[in-house]
Fold:
Amino acid sequence: MKFSIRTVVPDDFEVINKLVTASYPKGASRATMIERLRQWDNYNPQFEVVAQSAEDGQVIGHSLMIPVQVSGMGNDYQIVSVISISVDPAYQHHAVGQGILHELESRAQLAGYPAVSAIDSGDFFFNSGYVAGENFNLLSTMPVDIYSNLVKQLRDGSLYNKGGKIYYPDEYFGIDHS
Structure:
């Protein structure tokens, strides 16, 4: 299966909403969260990508990654977190998700981030080299199982002696301070 990955453009938003809604049990709320994060001041369009079929140009996958704050142990710094990965069911198990993830990791590394985090209880991220954040003393402020809070260093030693808690922005939760 041949596909390409590119940065999202506004013309993709409608098909992305449909893809996300179909990919998650509460897909409509996840699609709404993605729309909300696009309005956030720290949204970086380079961290939102789509996969397109080489055959017909159809969008077959999507992912969004955002910067998150890590605080604690005398350290305050940012990493990025993969918020959503969606692949059209007809194209799953063809390495589309892994290709998207690899592209986002490369973009995060080029932007100077030390690590990527994700919240997931399946094998997808684990099989891509992610480990429990606990290994780096990185804890999630989200109410998730400790082994669902996953992290991957983008450079050897980039999380050495850093630790702390990962804080997601209010926009992630839909909190409006206006």
User: Anything to note?
Assistant: The beta strands are 3-7, 48-53, 59-72, 75-87, 115-119, 131-132, 138-140, 149-153, 164-167.
